Amino acid sequence: MSRIAPRLGPLEEGSGSRRLSDDPPESSPTGNESGGNTHQETWVDYDLDDRAPLLFISGGKDHLMPPAVIRSNAKKYRGSEALTDFYEFPERSHFTGVEPGWEQVADYALNWAVSHARAPRS
Predict the structure, then answer these.
(1) Is 111 exposed, middle or buried (0-12, 13-18, 19+ CB in 10 A)?
(2) 116 or 118: which carries more pLDDT confidence?
(3) Contact by Cβ (8 Å): 51, 80
(4) Sign (positive/negative) of CA torsion 46, 70, 103, 84?
């Protein structure tokens, strides 16, 4: 059974924080009165403690999403008590998971996931 976390709502006036909301964003297809094509907003709760461990993998020679960008994305999760890790494969490109030698990346990710797995809550 999958569970979808509530979407973060608009910024609370003067608080600097977002409120949780189950209402669709106003720019979503269900909240748009103009009838035009729109996209649904996506919100990430970086501070969510009740989530699975998260591993960011980067290729050191990735010019599309350089390691600094991936590292910066990982740092956004610092406020969460849940585990967030970053690992860089220095000689790999943006296509690190599909280029020759991808097995090394897959093995690293699998070993990381297994070593950080936790039993499901009952």
Answers:
(1) exposed
(2) 116
(3) yes
(4) negative
Q: Is the pLDDT of residue 6 over 80?
A: no
**Cα separation, 41 vs 48, whole angstroms:** 18
| Residue 29 contacts residue 40 (beta carbons within 8 Å) | yes
Q: Is 83 exposed, middle or buried (0-12, 13-18, 19+ CB in 10 A)?
A: middle
Per residue in 96-114, pLDDT tens? 989 999 999 999 999 999 9
Q: What percent of the chain has pLDDT over 70?
A: 66
Residue type, 58: S
d(CA 110, CA 116): 10
What is the maximum span of the chain, computed from C-alpha positions, in angstroms?
A: 51
Side chain identity, residue 20: L
